[in-house]
Structures
1.
Amino acid sequence: MKRSKLDKIDRKILLTLQEEGRITNVDLAKKAGISAPPCLRRVRALEESGFIKSYHAFLDPHKLGYGITVFAHVSLTSHNDVDLKKFEIKIREWPFVREAHLLSGETDVLLKVVAKDWEAYQHFLTTSLLATENVAAVRSSIAIRTSKLEPGVPINDNLSA
């Protein structure tokens, strides 16, 4: 049962899963106001329809030894589709790059990079990023602290697909 529009129960399921990814189906069903079997069917339909793309654990980078987050503002020499695709393939190879966004405006690509320390980031910058074909320049901004980190999207009664 594929979904193209979301009802109130679907939105409640999505909101709950976004906030509590490890919730049991029984508890999810209670929060959604339905019984467990139809809740599981709805979750599977939401997965099959692409509303739910995957499930993840939110890890603490500092506890894992990643002391800095850097936003790399990348300027490219070419913006044609072939060169952009080559660059996108390359950045998927770099484990330090956690997010990549193609932008309009002054910055062509914004990369979120985690590193053990500034020296590790500089090594990545000089040996990998700046050495990559099509990269013209990189401006680096170090995150001082994270004031808000809320994965996902807002779920509200106006959401429709």
2.
Amino acid sequence: MAEPAVPGRGEPTGRDRPVEHRDAFVTGGAYGVLFVLGAIEAIMGSFGYSWMVGPVPAAALGCCAALLVTCLAAGWAMRSLAGALVPAIGWILVSFVLAMPNAEGSVVITNTAAGKWYLYGGAISAAIGIVGVFALWIRRMPGAKPSR
């Protein structure tokens, strides 16, 4: 019969014992934060997209650029395609929900040139970010031939 583990005899006990699911918890939390980041970008952009510089929807284009950088940076930081996909999903869900009319018929994102640049440009920016991370991921796969 085996003796119970006694502190000081070489077996980890208490706080010294490794936590098996800590990595999965931290990774899941990081993806959750990225989703919320995408949603926050959508909320901020949805209420500020209409700022124009002359005929150019500057705020809408800035929001699109911010989403692109977020997707690329998140994919690079998480070292996965999901890192780019999760903030894009958060942005798309919130932005397109805010673009739908409510029961009274009002919308947050209007059917103007700036609104179209914001919605469609943001969706394209998210897709470019995801494809960019996918291209980097493919290049770094083991067994991939180096490009010349």
